[in-house]
Amino acid sequence: MQHRIETIKEKWVVGMTVQTSLFNISNDTKQLAQRFMPRRSEISSRVGNHVFSIQNYGPAYNPSNPKALFEKWVAVEVSQVDELPKEMNSFLITSGTYAVFSYKGSASNFSKARAYIFQEWLPNSGYMLDQKAHFEILNENYSKNFSHTEEDIWIPIIKKP
Asked: Which of 75, 87, 125, 146 supports an S-S bond with 13, CB 3.0-4.6 Å?
């Protein structure tokens, strides 16, 4: 799986969020996207046509527990946070260094890509996870074709000491 290392400035996004777990993420993400996508045009000062799928695990998150809760977001980038549409909130993706993996394939095989990143690439990379949100950047029509998706997976990293 091809990857690159990028350092980004902070980005504000506006969207909808839900508390979920790895156990429920597929269904919760689908429902969240179904609520958000028809309303994304209500967001002013939108940047680009892409959509962010964000996992904000937080410092207390335990990845070995598939029922541990974290925030799941579906959102769009904005140039400024002004009036928010009803039932939407803002979130700051903080600046930092990210490993970016380009994924192409079916949505059902996405978990294999994540397993590769965390079980093979990361332990052998010279990096470790940074305590920041993880996210994917999807094209605007992502939800319309789950058999062939293209997205970039952004994993926050820092150099190992």
From this structure: 75
